[in-house]
Amino acid sequence: MCEQENGPDPRSGDAVAERKRDLRERLLTARRHTPQEVLDARAASLGAHVLAIPEVAFAGTVAAYVSMGTEPPTDAVLAALHARGAHVLLPVLLGDNDLDWAPYEGPDSLRDAGRGLREPATTPLGVDAVASADVVLVPGLAVSADGVRMGRGGGSYDRALARVGENALRVLLLHPDEIDQDVPAAPHDQRVDVVVSAEGVVRFTA
Ligand SMILES: Nc1ncnc2c1ncn2[C@@H]1O[C@H](COP(=O)(O)OP(=O)(O)OP(=O)(O)O)[C@@H](O)[C@H]1O
Ligand SMILES: [Mg+2]
Fold it and tell me: Could you tell me whether strands 87-93 and 99-103 are parallel, antiparallel, or unpaired per DSSP bridges?
């Protein structure tokens, strides 16, 4: 049989999964090759852009995450939200890659959860707690020109975002060169409303 007959059908879910794998590999390699001083230089402007979004500035409850490795850092954003009295929820990764949510009680309240993850040590409130958020800050690796998000491949945020209220603002934090990518989309892939990088804020229209 020729390769064309054996290759993935470009219309099938397998082809989407394969293209996502390739794109993830390319973007993760780019992150690994970004000098630490460049990552550090982006941190302050990213945080300032996030906190200046009006919905973030006025949110009563923000579901967020603790960044790891070469992800755009969230520590300063979490601390600032907590300091101004916002209710901040953080994810707790479950065995099936779904996300539970627990309250953030300040920088000293996180524990090492292994594999570079830091999680809240507080009591989890359940997978549906994310529905109480006015704003959801999510990690990822890429976003398309119309707001389709791609993450690391666990499907965690596709599940979590499906539980978020329809008036909540979904905000993705990325590095500048990860925006406007040709993201392969499957029906389960969730969109975001806004992407923020060190270079600024982009809002997607519905
Ligand atoms: N609602 C869901 N329930 C169960 N599995 C799901 C759900 N949504 C997505 N998945 C599964 O998760 C797997 C990974 O999905 P996908 O490639 O879209 O990950 P991702 O969006 O990059 O990951 P993440 O959301 O963790 O950042 C797929 O096998 C997909 O079927
Ligand atoms: Mg997805």
Answer: antiparallel
Count CB-CB contacts under 10 A for residue 185: 16
Q: What is the CA radius of gyration of the chain?
A: 17
Burial grade of 114 (CB within 10 A; 0-12, 13-18, 19 or more):
exposed
Q: Is 188 in the pocket of ligand 1 (CB under 6 A)?
A: yes
Ligand (nearest to CA of 163): 1
The CA 162 to ligand 1 mean position distance, Å, reads: 11
Query: What's the CA-to-centroid distance between 11 and ligand 2, angstroms?
Result: 17
The model's pLDDT over 26-70, given as tens digits with 9 standing for 90+, comes to 999 999 999 999 999 999 999 999 999 999 999 999 999 999 999
For the CA of 20, the closest atom of ligand 1 is 17
Q: Which domains does the chain show, CATH number per domain?
A: 3-203 (3.40.50.10420)
The ligand 1 atom at the shortest distance from the C-alpha of residue 190 is 21
* Statement: residue 99 has pLDDT above 60: yes
User: Residue 153's closest CA among 197, 188, 177, 120?
Assistant: 188
* Burial tier of 175 (Cβ tally within 10 Å: 0-12, 13-18, 19+): buried
Question: What length is written for the chain?
Answer: 206
Between CA 109 and CA 70 the distance in angstroms is 22
Amino acid at 123: T
